[in-house]
Amino acid sequence: MAVALRRGRGAAACSLMLLVAAAAAAAPSPEPQQSSATSRAIEATPTSLPLPVPGAAGSKYSGDGATDRAAASGIILDIIGGIGGILFPSHDRPPPPPPSPRRLPPPLAPRPQRPPPRLLATSAPPASPPPSPTPPPPSPPPPAPPPPSPLPLSPPPPSSLPPSLPPPLPPSPFPPPPSPPVPPSPHPLSPPLMPRPRPPPPSPPPPVLRSAPPPATPTTPQTNDGRYSNGSEPTVIVTLGTSRSTYHYYHPEYRVSTLYCADAFAGKSSAWLIAYPWIAYCAPFPRTAAWDGMSPNKCGKCLRLTNNRTGARQIVRVVDMCGHSAIDSDYLSAFIPLDSDGQGYLDGEIFVTVEVVACADPPS
Fold first, then answer.
1. Residue 364 contacts by C-beta under 8 Å, 6 or more apart in sequence?
2. If 0-12 CB within 10 Å is exposed, 13-18 middle and 19+ buried, where does residue 359 land?
3. HSE toward the beta carbon, residue 279, CA cutoff 13 A
4. Mean pLDDT, the chain, as a whole number?
5. What is the model's pTM?
6. Cβ(77)–Cβ(20) under 8 Å?
7. How far is CA 76 from CA 7, 73, 82, 210, 360, in A?
8. CB count, 10 Å around CB of 239?
9. Mean pLDDT in residue range 111-128
10. Best CA proximity match to 14, nearest among 85, 92, 90, 71
C-alpha cells in the first residue's frame, strides 16, 4: 500500500484491479486435469533449462499452494503498480510548507519629551485675587465737620514753628497793583503770499542800419496774361488750332540738364530761361508741317495758349518733348494760371487754342 501511495493517483487507479486479481488468486481452484496424451508430451519434451523444483534450495516456491499463490500475488502487485506509475504519473505535489511568519521591525522607541521651558522670575507683582462677588459692607458716614469758629483765625504761636524758619510776614494793608494790559499783536494773522514779481523783459537791441539788399533773381518762370512784360500784345505768327493740355511738375528745381532742349539751351542765362513758363510740346498739327510734332528747331519758341472755357491766356516757351500727342504745361507757372476755375485740375486736362507768337526775349 505504501508503494501505491508513492505512485500517485495513477497507481491508485490500478489498485482496485489488483485487489480483484489478488482475490481471484487466493481462491482455491481445482487442479487442472490433463489428458494422458498431454502429460506424455510434456514429459517427453526435452528442456535445456532446469525447471524449478518446489522446496529446493534457492527456489522461491515452497511447495505449499496457498503460500506460493500469495507470493505470486505480491510480485504481480509490484509489477502492476510500477506499470501504473509509468502510465499515469502523479501530478500531486506535497503541500507547500507553511509560510514563515513575517518578521516585523521592532517598534520605535518613543522620543523623549523635552522638559517644559523654565519661566524666568520677573518682578511683576502677583496677580490680585478676583473680586469678591459679595458687595463690601457700607462704610461708616464721615464725621461731621466742626462748627466754624466765630473768631478770626490767628497765626500759630511762635513756639509751634520750627526754629530755623523766619516768622511769616504780616499781610500788606495795600491792594496788589493792577497788571498792565497786554497790547494786541500787530500781526494777528500771516499775510497772504503774494506772487513774486517777474523781472521786466530785456529791452530789444537797437536796430542796426544796413543798406537794402539787392533784388533777388527770380528762379521761377514769370507768369503773364498773354502779353509782354510791358503790356503790349505779342505778334501772332500762325494759329495752329485746338489741342489738349495736361500738366507736368518742373518746379521747384527747373533743372535744364533733364530737358529735351538742354543742348540748345547751353550758354543761355537764367533770366532768359525763366522769362516764360515751360511746356513740353508734342501736339500733332498735320496741316502745318513745321509744327507737326516736336523737333530740335522748336526749342525756345514761344506759344500763346488760350483756355477755350475760361479765356485765360499765357505766353509759354517750348523746352521739352512729351509723348501723348498733346501739350504738358508746367503745373505751377502755366497750368494753374490757365485753369482759372479749377475744373481742369478735376478733369486732368484743359483744351486750349495754340498760337505761335514772337518772343520778346531779354538779352541772353
1. 267, 268, 269, 272
2. middle
3. 29
4. 74
5. 0.42
6. no
7. 15, 5, 10, 162, 163
8. 13
9. 66
10. 85
